[in-house]
Specification:
Shape: elongated
Low-confidence stretches: none
Largest sheet: none
Number of strands: 0
Distance between the termini: 77 Å
Number of domains: 1
Radius of gyration: 24 Å
Oligomer: single chain
Length: about 150
């Protein structure tokens, strides 16, 4: 029976290692771009739904408490789903950034003198999560629509 052992299954030259690390770097940077695009689409779509719902509620009388409750439940559900999707992307972004930092170390982008004399190729960075700001936006938009629903019932 043959199989992969715990020892190295494939011997790689330095050039192959570099190519593998470079491919991983490109994959991770593209994934970060994609995650950013998906975040913007989720958040933008959520805000569009909120604006449309608030406009509709503002123009139409919600005559019964059941209708008001139904609109509020739908809105809360949309807010919760949007927040969860944005949170999942935030968690995935942490994983991708961690992998990207490992690749940057392998490629020696932060070592002085490797690519540039007396300088590093990459500057030190700080992780800046957008998740809290998205959550604030989701919460404020939800509150706004709920206020319109309450106002429409008055």
């Amino acid at each position: 029976m043959t199989g992969i052992t715990t020892t190295r299954a494939l011997a790689l030259t330095d050039d192959r290692k570099f190519q593998a690390a470079l491919a991983r770097f490109q994959d991770h940077t593209e994934l970060l771009r994609t995650l950013t695009s998906v975040d913007i689409q989720i958040f933008g779509g959520y805000l569009a739904i909120q604006l449309a719902l608030a406009t509709w509620v503002g123009e139409n009388a919600l005559k019964t408490n059941d209708v008001r409750l139904g609109v509020m439940l739908v809105d809360i559900t949309i807010a919760a789903l949007s927040a969860k999707l944005l949170y999942n992307n935030y968690r995935r972004r942490i994983e991708v950034v961690g992998g990207l930092k490992r690749v940057i170390e392998v490629l020696c982008f932060r070592e002085k003198g490797v690519y540039l004399s007396e300088q590093t190729l990459d500057a030190d960075t700080v992780f800046r999560p957008w998740w809290p700001w998205y959550l604030i936006g989701v919460g404020v938009a939800l509150l706004g629509v709920l206020l319109v629903v309450f106002r429409a019932s008055a």
